[in-house]
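ok here's Copper oxidase, seq below lol
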Amino acid sequence: MNLTKFVDKLPIPPVIKPLRKDSNHTYYEATMTEFKQSLHRDLPETTVWGFEGVYPGPTFEVESGEKVFVKWINNLPEKHLLPIDHTIHGAHTDAPDVRTVIHLHGASVEWESDGYPEAWFTNGFQQTGPYFSKEIYRYDNYMPACTLWYHDHTLGITRLNVYAGLAGFYLIRNQRERELYLPSGRFDIPLIIQDKSFNPDGSLLYPRQQEKPVPGLETSIVPEFFGDTILVNGKVWPYLNVEPRKYRFRLLNASNSRFYRLRLDSGQLFYQIATDSGLTESPVGLHEVILAPAERSEVIVDFTNLEGKRIIMTNDAPAPYPNGEPVNPDTFGQVMEFRVVEPLSSIDTSTIPAFMVPFPKRRVQEASKVRFLGLTRKKDQYGREVMLLDDKDWDAPISENPKLGQTEVWYLINLTNEVHPIHLHLVDFQVIDRRNFDVEKYKQKGVLEYTGPANPPIPQERGRKDTVIAYAHQVTRIIMKFGPYTGLYVWHCHILEHEDYVMMRPLRVIP
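and the structure came out like this:
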């Protein structure tokens, strides 16, 4: 749709207030409902799903170590907003169409509160999935200061529920972060970036079929979904009025499949201060920030001495990334606009510190287990591509069963022609390196023969991560220590269309 850019002001998601709080615990309720919301000045109001009557959902702000309890309440209607493919495992006709389960992405939590894909529940908890065990989730927030996000994680329909609007920010703060004098308060702004398409009546458009329709099916899973507009915080191509000072932006790619390669058209730097799971050792100046679905990057942008300027945050990531169609600079080439038009409200005393937190690197020699895990694909009975982890379906016996406290190195061996952002629940990890290899030799003989040198992670990845880009025909190595909980978790590709069909596997941490 031909929608005018930069006519709507950027909304800032509200901060959710707890119902109860004392020295021992904090209790929230967050209710999912269907409602109408204006996503662009020139569009009729759009029916969306959200939490507490807003899309994206309200932001949680908690402290490291704070014991938080959340009751996620499903008050959604029985009929789904979007077309369901009942041929997908977990979404067969014997499951209710509208069911939800919420995952706090990046959090280290007990498995019963992790949002296991088969722990879903319907309106009023009338029906529940086979792994449902509790209505109120517990988050102990053992992590340091970081930017997390919550989103639906229901087996077979995650892509639809997130696209409908079930996502929001969850920020953990601590004293060390405050001592760094980073931009704070209203100068600390979360930005959730998504792409969507609309029908002329303003309703959300999600395809019912692939480009080549599957005969005999009313709806069919698509390989990836790419919308034709970009939204930030639930507005299509918004603008933000800023003061001539430093701002902290928490960038989150919450798109189903689209990657972003972000730049500022003024040519100035992003100063990255944090990766997915927390602050980095030192800031790094970047001309571009690459974000796969689910990745976060915290950056400082300095608008000092730029009074009157208009600066556009641009995107030139092809879709699919990195070898797809080039970006049209007039549409997906633009994300949002910063207008340096506000007067300075106070002296800017915030800093970009030279050092933030220590970052002890995990050594490969510490690992007591190494796993070689192929990223593969096959064709289903309808000729559609199915993406797999380790060549296994979702319900194959659990093969990833690390011991509590065990350090492991995973070799993610991408045998497909596509890129996959791989996410592990429970733990954060460090990226070791990436390396090209002889794909055909591995397929035929199972022999891993490298064809080039190992490439270290790019500067923006040198920190605590929970999602890593596994490029086509490369081995990506990551290292992590499992804990502090045992139980049933998952690992998966975070391209949601891949995750739903069926690039996700259980992961059990054992005592």
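fwiw The CA atoms of residues 208 and 218 lie 7 Å apart. kinda neat tbh
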